Amino acid sequence: MEFMSDMLSGADSGKPSLFEIVAQHKMSDLIEPALRHVTSVYAHRYPRHLVRILNWHEEIYAAVMLVVERHYLRAYGGSFAEHFYGTKRVRTHKIRGDNGLTRGDVWGSLALLVGLPLVKGRLDQYYERISGGDAARLLGSSFAQAEQNEDPSPETATAAAGSDLYGLRRRLMSWRLSLKRMFKLCYPHANFMYHAATALYYIAYMFDRTDYNSPWLHMLGLQVRRLSAADYRAMNERDSATSDLAAPANGSPIRFARNMVAHLLTGGLDFLKVLLPLSIFFYRFLEWWHRSDFHKKAQMTPPPPPPMPLKPHPEGLSVPEDQTLCPICNEPRTNPAAAPSGYVYCYPCIFNHISDKHTCPVTLAAAHVNGIRKLYSDS
């Protein structure tokens, strides 16, 4: 899906607005947590096969995105999110009149799109582990991870005190603890500089002080521009089977199989730009369905059918034709009450009968006084 914004940023119609840039970055940042959540849900159902994938989720996701981003950078000149929002990357300084991405630009973009988030995510996890996380920030440094005392036991130290290996080990442990303390002290400042640089470039980009929306694109000498009508025509004319894996056909079955794999792989990667909006629509539909009354009605269990009425026993009392009369005293019912069998009597009559004989007088079915239900009517 190509998305072409009609918003113009000043006089330069090809420059995307800051809102488009932020939307692209947000989309890239939300894909990985969404896939992690889906994997964790199914890992609880199928732990034998998915727990290992969940444990190595960041690395597997980075490997998959390396293939996806490389394809979109080489085929469309932009990342997956940038192409989804109708933008591309161009070189600031043209080479032989062409501002398309070179091979070095593609690999530099891959390092920033895939490698930088992976490294930063691992650094964030390591800092959270050694600093104690939110509990240490709220409740003090006592919740931070205690530095392990890796000194050997007194017996081992005495036995190895004169060896060079023991001294080397002590120095290595000392350097390791020093590096850990230095990382714990310096990483928050480095993380602040990372986000501050991004925010400053956003502000400068918004006020047209720079054509680069991030310091990393500035380092690579790349700008993000909107796709033009010529770009869309070129993409429509592009053969979907074009791939680095494809080779000229020579009648060989191996070459034919290779080209088929290349065609399927390229087509599958191109289908991602259609699959993403379909997934969003399907998710929104499920969210609406679970909140709607249709889902509640579909989940409701229908009430069970009423039990079959008990027929009068031949040896029991007969039911009067006048439904207002009590079968026991043949008088109009006073203070009506129903027996467990469903027949209605005067409350004193049915209470005394069940207390004496423990049966319904009409059906002779077993009954107990606790099963008597008094009836109330407006009349």
UniProtKB/TrEMBL annotation:
Subcellular location: Peroxisome membrane
Protein name from the UniProt record: Peroxisome assembly protein 12
Topology of the protein relative to the lipid bilayer: Multi-pass membrane protein
Residue ranges annotated for the RING-type domain, each copy included: 326-363
Any Gene Ontology CC annotation: peroxisomal membrane
Family designation: Belongs to the pex2/pex10/pex12 family.
Gene Ontology annotations of biological process type: protein import into peroxisome matrix, receptor recycling; protein monoubiquitination
Biological source species: Coemansia aciculifera
Main location, first listed in the record: membrane
SUPFAM superfamilies reported for this sequence: RING/U-box
